[in-house]
Amino acid sequence: MLNKKLRLGVLASGGGTNLQAIIDTCRQGVINAEIGLVLSNKSDAGALERGRKAGLPTLCLDHRQYTDREGFDRAAVAALRDAGVQLVALAGFMRILTPVFLNAFPQRILNIHPALLPAFPGVHAQRQAFQYGVKLAGCTVHFVDNGVDTGPIVIQAAVPVLDDDTEETLAARILAQEHRIYPRAIQLFAEGRLHIEGRKVRIVPPLSPREQALLNPPPASEDAV
Ligand code: GAR
After folding, report:
1. Ligand 1 proximity of 6 Cβ (cutoff 6 Å)
2. What would be the CATH architecture of the domain defined by 111-218?
3. 179 vs 25: CA distance, rounded Å
4. What is the distance in A from the centroid of ligand 1 to the CA of 36?
5. Which CATH class for the 1-106 domain?
6. What's the predicted TM-score (pTM) here?
7. Could you tell me the residue ranges of all domains in the chain?
8. Residue 91 alpha carbon to ligand 1 centre in Å
9. Does the structure show a pLDDT above 50 at 1?
């Protein structure tokens, strides 16, 4: 029982590089999980292609075929349950979930967001951060609640904004960190180490001090002021 793999459902609407990071780390045994279903609302999503290439079960539910959000969510929940999914990972899934979905997987839905929440929720987070002029951008893995990008935060990584950055170079640097922290958060869940206490997620036992500060690049002591 101890080595039983956590069964994941990954929902994605886009290219699927976060899905790929999860596939790769599952395969490498870095996370003790297996993907039971890759689900997308877009038939041309790169994520579906990545899932197929990896030999995983994939499903497209075209949201335009449903008269309301609840109908789509009911179909998605049924498919995820059929696949025996225990944890849902939203990986660039660009739809808001209704209580139909949220109540089916209480405290069992994670999302990756390309900003240091609570700053810059919603769409185009990297653009929002770039245009605002922040010096530190980053990404967040959080549990999903009924708000938009408001749920309890599991793990974050900070990314410096460089003088010559464009929105695209900044987004790429953030994405590289997403690929690092999302598998890490899933593994912490798989290990039963995430305890939600109100707004806070306590990690038990705690991360090492080195892991607690996920800075990229790590602070260089000679640069300290
Ligand atoms: C990622 O940057 C993810 O954080 C973002 O979409 C991208 C998907 O990339 N998600 C959101 O903005 C959710 N609000 P991917 O398809 O290559 O993983």
Report:
1. no
2. 3-Layer(aba) Sandwich (3.40)
3. 10
4. 20
5. alpha beta
6. 0.94
7. 1-106, 111-218
8. 6
9. no
